[in-house]
UniProtKB/TrEMBL annotation:
Pfam families named in the record: ExbD
UniProt source species: Exilibacterium tricleocarpae
Gene Ontology cellular-component terms listed: plasma membrane
Family: Belongs to the ExbD/TolR family.
Protein name in the entry: Biopolymer transporter ExbD
UniProt key word Transmembrane: yes
Main location as per UniProt: membrane
């Protein structure tokens, strides 16, 4: 009889971790679902200021143009001749996405217009330039 009592006391003293694990998994799922995933071009540029800046909601294809005329798409440097191909690939993944060019304020206007033309040749007609609100 003492063995039964001893076994019952051990079972009564054990802590059941199942509810705690359930709560941890629910919290993990909550944070994964509510986390915001920000797309970045891969390089920081000093955007020009504008008084007519507007917020763009569906900007999914980001292209950065640096002050020394480098083009960055999807966190990697891209040759200027390959801009259209990369935009076509990203546009195929998300057909409703718009192209936003994040050009440095000292970037070449010639390269900026070449990137915009490449986006239009790739079939994306919603092209805009990112600026800082003045």
């Amino acid at each position: 009889m003492s063995r039964k009592n001893q076994k019952a006391e051990e079972e009564a003293g054990a802590i059941d971790l199942t509810p705690m694990l359930d709560v941890v998994f629910i919290m993990l799922i909550f944070f994964i679902v509510t986390a915001s995933f920000i797309k970045e071009t891969g390089i920081e540029v000093n955007r020009p200021e504008a008084t007519t800046a507007e917020l763009k909601k569906n900007a999914n294809i980001l292209v950065a143009v640096t002050e020394n005329d480098q083009v960055w798409i999807d966190k990697r440097q891209v040759d200027q001749r390959m801009v259209r191909v990369n935009i076509e690939r990203l546009h195929a993944e998300n057909p409703k996405g718009a192209v936003v060019i994040q050009a440095d304020d000292k970037a070449s206007i010639k390269l900026l217009t070449a990137v915009a033309e490449a986006a239009r040749e790739a079939g994306v007609f919603d092209v805009s330039v990112a600026t800082e609100k003045k």
